[in-house]
Each structure stands twice: as C-alpha cells, then as structure tokens.
Amino acid sequence: MRVLITGGAGFIGSHYARTMLAGGYPGCADARVTVLDQLTYAGDTRSLPMDHPRLRFVHGDVCDPALLRRVVPGHDAVVHCAAESHADRPMNGSAEFIRTNILGTHTLLEACRVHRVGPVVVVSTDEVYGPVGQSRRGEGHPPLPDSPYSASKAAGDLVALAYARTHGLDVRVTRGCDTYGPYQHVEQPIPAEVTGLLGGAPPPAPGGDRDPREWVHVDDHCRAVHLVLTRGRAGGVYNVGGGTVLDRARLARILAGLCGGVPGPARSVEDGPGGPGADRGRALDDRRIRAELGFRNLVPFAWGIAETVHWYRSNPGWWEPLLRESVL
Ligand code: NAD
Predict the structure, then answer these.
(1) Which of the four, 7, 17, 131, 169, has the lowest number of CB atoms within 10 Å?
(2) Helix (H, G, I), strand (E, B), or coil: what is residue 251?
(3) Is 25 tagged catalytic?
(4) In a domain, 296, yes or no
(5) How far does the centroid of ligand 1 lie from the alpha carbon of residue 82, in Å?
(6) Which residues contact 175 (CB under 8 A, 6 or more apart)?
(7) Is residue 126 annotated as part of the catalytic site, yes or no?
(8) Is the pLDDT of residue 200 over 90?
(9) Which residues are in the NAD-dependent epimerase/dehydratase domain (predicted)?
(10) pLDDT reading at 269 higher than 70
C-alpha cells in the first residue's frame, strides 16, 4: 500500500506516519508513506523518521494543483491532515484558515478525482458541531461552527462529502475531539501549560468551570483514522471521541499535579474502557465508529496524560526552540 499523508509533519499526521512506518497497523507493515507538508510553524521534520527507507518527504503546499498533479498519482490511499489548526493564533484576518482548510482540501480532492486515487480520509474535527453543549452530538447534528477555524473545517468537510456524492470519489470523514500526546506544538493548550509548568511558571489561576473539552489520545485518534481508512464506508462520517470531558480549571489542576508541585487529581479521572465512569465523560456521540468498525479507546486519560507530561519533561530539546519562536 502507498499512503499519502498531507500535513504529515504536524502533530496527528506525524504520529500516524511514525506508527505506520513502525509496523503499528496490522496489514500495513510494508506500506510506503509519502508526507506532503508545507512546514508552516506547526510542521516539523524532527517529528518524522526522515531517513526511513519507506518514507518520502515532499515539501509543498496542498493548495498547489500542479504539485498535487505530480504527487497524488500512484497512491492507494490518502489521509488528509494538512490544515491551519490553531484557532487562537493571530492570523492574517483568518485568510490562512480559509485558504488551507477549504481551498487546500478542494485542491486535494480534485487531484484525487482526476487521478482516481482513494480512499481519502479527511481528518476533520468535532468543532464543526460548535461548542460542547448539553446534548451529545452525533454525526447527523447540523454543523454550527463558531470560529473561522471551525467554519473553514466544516466547509472543507462538506466539500469532501459533496465529492463523494457528486463525483463518486471514495471519501470518508472523521470528526475527532481535542487530541493530546507527544510532539504537539507548544502553542496548543496542553503543551503550552505543561512546558510553562516545567519551566517553572506558576500554575494558572483557577478559571472556574468553563470551556469543557473532550480529550482523546493521539494514538487512539490515529487508530480510529486508520480503521476508517481500511474498514469505513465510502461517503461515511465518523465521530472520534475520547471519553474524558474536562473544563480548563480541572485540566489545569491535573497538569499542575503531574508537573510537580500541586498534588493533582489525575488519579480520580474516570475514563477509558470499562472504567467506572466510562461513559460519563462523552460530549460526542461516537457510537457509530464503535458499532460499525469496532473502535475502542485504548489509552485511558490518566495514563495518557501522565505519559505525555513525561515526554515533554524528557524532550526539552524538541520543544524549547519552538517556545522561543512562539508568537503567543
Ligand atoms: P498541526 O497544526 O499540528 O499540523 C498541521 C500540519 O499541516 C503541519 O505540519 C503544517 O505544516 C501542515 N500544513 C499547513 N498548511 C499546509 C499547506 N497549505 N500545505 C501543506 N501542509 C500544510 O495540526 P494537527 O493537530 O496535527 O491536526 C491535523 C488535522 O486534524 C487537522 O485537519 C485538524 O483540523 C484535525 N484535528 C485536530 C485536532 C487536535 O486537537 N489537534 C482534533 C481534531 C481534528
């Protein structure tokens, strides 16, 4: 199998590429991987095994139709992760979101249509449904994006589904919740807090019960994407949940506890398969991927977040240069 991963030098795409090249996906031990990435502030070749014999790296823009005409043919599958994904970064009037997340997705789909390449998994986000509310949001929930980022992702995701219906292109969409794990850029919420705490910053002041998010470990997210790629339905949409909903204040207490100093309540987080609160912390309705494809979360939050903090503690050489360049 020859797999093209756009945005494969970013957080989720590089985890998917590393896992595939390491033989972590059954049946794909010999897969050849092409990573196409523009290496924006969020892309980093240090997240990839660049000298791996089955990895080809192409430095380029997913919005460039001539480049895609050269790169796309010859692949058996595409995982589309390239995106402007940082909702809080100062942007050029949101133009980057619109360009990469809509135009880039369209340019890729068009190349796949012309060259008959598929399946294509478009890695979208639960943010297309709008903020976490009272009801669990299933795949049939209308898109109600509330930021330029989520609106651009919703548009790209809907264009992808339109390509499935109009052109018969084999496209599948995943809508994952907030994702955490190693190699995530320091401007994202969990790494920002962890690297600050590890550098000696005081824990952030408790902010009350606000901005609840559902969290999934990157390894679970990528396994879900791979399941959708190998066993999903053409034209299908699959939510990917994590089973742990935390507001900012609770998350901050957990991270402060893990980074030393304040005793955190990480042990009391109830989540994961079979845990006492296994279903209490779901904001997304992810029953479809569980029922249809047999997906299960394998990384309990308490374990995954401790392992993530340990990774940042052990790899300052990876994140300190990013912190120095950060614009936030
Ligand atoms: P990321 O910002 O870490 O990585 C994005 C990658 O895309 C970077 O390597 C960047 O260089 C590359 N890129 C940006 N513009 C490009 C362009 N024009 N051409 C080619 N490459 C370009 O993002 P991530 O967290 O890995 O997210 C990957 C995908 O998953 C995104 O589509 C995002 O919307 C989605 N997603 C992310 C999360 C999350 O919490 N991180 C949750 C759900 C869905």
Answers:
(1) 131
(2) helix
(3) no
(4) no
(5) 5
(6) 124, 125, 126, 128, 129, 139, 157, 237, 238, 239, 240, 284
(7) yes
(8) no
(9) 3-241
(10) no
Regarding whether 162 and 120 lie in a shared domain, the answer is yes
Q: Do both 206 and 228 map to the same domain?
A: no
Residues written for the chain: 328
**Which CATH number belongs to the domain containing residue 55 in this structure?**
3.40.50.720
Q: Is residue 271 part of a domain?
A: yes
Q: Model-level pTM greater than 0.85?
A: yes
**Whole-number percent of the chain with pLDDT over 70:** 89
Among 34, 57, 81, say which to mutate for ligand 1: greatest number of ligand atoms within 8 Å of CB. Answer: 81
pLDDT tens digit sequence for 286-319: 999 999 999 999 999 999 999 999 999 999 999 9
- Pocket probe for ligand 1: among 4, 6, 12, 57, the residue whose CB has the most ligand atoms within 8 Å is 12
Based on the domain organization, do 201 and 220 belong to the same domain?
no
Predicted local confidence at residue 280, as pLDDT: 44
Say yes or no: 117 and 232 in one domain: yes
In a domain, 290, yes or no: no
Tokens representing 205 are: 């002041």
Active site (annotated) includes residue 292: no
Residue 201's pLDDT band, with cuts at 50, 70 and 90, is confident
- Are residues 22 and 104 located together in one domain of the fold? yes
CATH code for position 276? 3.90.25.10
Produce one character per residue of 44-60: b if its CB has 16 or more CB atoms within 10 Å, e if not: beebbeeeeeebebeeb
Question: In the structure, what pLDDT confidence band is assigned to residue 182 with cuts at 50, 70 and 90?
Answer: very high
* Residue 285, both tokens: 């309705």
| Cα gap 185→43, rounded to integer Å | 9
Report CA torsion sign: 243, 128, 170, 3: negative
Measured CA to CA, the distance from residue 215 to residue 241 in angstroms comes to: 7
Residue 207 is predicted with a pLDDT of: 56
Each residue of 68-124: pLDDT tens digit? 999 999 999 999 999 998 877 766 668 889 999 999 999 999 999 999 999 999 999
